[in-house]
Amino acid sequence: MVIHPDLFEVPGRTLGQVMTGFARTQVRGTENRWHSHEEGQLFHVIHGAAAVDTELGTFHAPPERALWIPPKVAHHARYLSETEIRFLYVSPEAASALPDRPQVIQVTQLLRELILEFMSFGRGETQDGPAARIAAVILDQLKVLPAAPLQLPMPKEKRLRTVCERIVRCPADIPPLTAAAEACATSVRSFERRMKSETGLSYRTWCRQVKLFRALEMLAEGSGVSEVSHRLGYEGPSAFVATFKKAFGVTPGRYFT
After folding, report:
1. Residues contacting residue 176 through CB under 8 Å, at least 6 positions apart
2. Is 52 strand, coil or helix?
3. pLDDT tens per residue across span 171-186
4. Measuring CA to CA, which of 177, 195, 226, 254 is 20 to 30 A from 3?
């Protein structure tokens, strides 16, 4: 499917349409500044991988996944490899019927074809006619597709967030539960209760998610399974592969294909 030349140009600040497309290829290592949009934004990764940081946590978007970001949610994207990406900007009025929190979704074959078809129209052709009808079906799909487990939620409480940020920076050196609780000046039971309340995950599960997210980034950057397992403190490559497959349903070698 050919992308209309209009869509390689950055869209204007005031879009004035229900949906507007934008196509771009980002170079590996590219990062953009923290920013937000008046519109909702859908990142659809065709090839490559991106990690998007928000105040609510980090989201990972590998190939054939898409990240939905509601209007006015500040975010910062990091492209882990050369990444071909399609953006759909959704008007605030239309976005109000979609999830009010960021989430990663699996891109079905139907949604993928709808997005590609929409991207074949120029921006002046999307107010009505076939493009407008395609946009309406895309919005319907976004309302019903389930979220994928590709989020690392971050707590807001200051001391707890400090502990979590330290773990994110060095996931190979995760402090024991008792040490983490002590750093927050609280009992183990209170720490676990607060962690669950703020992130929806237990401390152990959250730490496992940190390692898996860092593994995804390293794999996207070209690291091998043995290197990833060693640097992240797994008992060995087989232990890492088993943990990865349990979380994502496929082995590391097949994930990006």
Report:
1. none
2. strand
3. 888 999 999 999 999 9
4. 254
